[in-house]
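idk why but the lab printer keeps eating my pages so im just putting this in chat instead. protein + NDP:
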Amino acid sequence: MSAKIIDGVAIAQKLQQEIASQIKDLTSKGLRAPGLAVIIVGENAASKIYVNKKRKMCLELGIISKDYNLPDNLAESELLKLIADLNKDYTIDGILVQLPLPKHIDSNKILEYILPDKDVDGFNPYNIGKLSLGRSALRPCTPKGILTLLQSTGVDLKGMNAVVIGASNIVGKPMAMELINARSTVTVCRSTTRDLPAIARQADIVIAATGVAEMVKGDWIKQGAIVIDVGINRLPNGELVGDVDFEQAKEVAGWITPVPGGVGPMTVATLMENTLYAATVLHSLV
Ligand code: NDP
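predcted complex ->
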């Protein structure tokens, strides 16, 4: 058996078209376009690639991107001052601070300083709290994008056994919340989990988000399961692979996301979706 591919590029493109068309509607009515402030501190090469993707996507969809490329030695107080200014700026609907920040800056303090209604990454404790209560809010982009991918299969998530491998604050934990809200039965695994393959084999849905290249093997997957691979790992030979052994898993799974071309494009598209949501629903730009 060979799994059906969940095409993250195509699904993200469809979402992007919908967003671009809604933004065109706003501006044709004489309203301002949504605004996103994208802040990067320091010279992390991977962060620069992500930030450039986000800025490019803003341009394509008609979102105004205000860009801040700040030096590595920026004082924490200066970053807080910038966020305070952006919190007050009515043309800015979303504030994105690219992580990781340099060690001398307290990331939690920075993320908590962003107004919840401008927190388009969905990392502020207020928004995480709302997600855990199942109430509408700005939701973390990667898990929200994965939910869109799962829904694209047409499979009813209610009552499904979902196993999330990875328990980070930005992927694993909010992913578990999303699936609980979708009324799945959820197990969260991490590095301390005993007999992980046996737990994964019970799953109708496996979400792999560990950062360990190709650790989820074909014999961890139940026949017909949906496999979502969040991982982005660069092998020594330069190849980009996920946390799932794709060649093995695709022979057993019913559906699978590729790397690249699965979760990654949805994360960026969902950031744009969140920015539009902040503008129209939270900031009443309609
Ligand atoms: P973190 O390093 O913050 O968290 C990794 C999690 O995986 C931890 O909970 C850790 O457990 C768990 N883990 C690590 N090793 C194992 C193991 N051998 N068995 C079981 N669990 C394990 O990573 P992130 O959540 O930030 O990212 C995970 C992956 O997803 C990375 O490859 C990252 O690049 C990618 N990513 C992709 C995105 C996209 O848009 N496609 C967006 C964000 C991330 P413990 O807590 O016990 O240490």
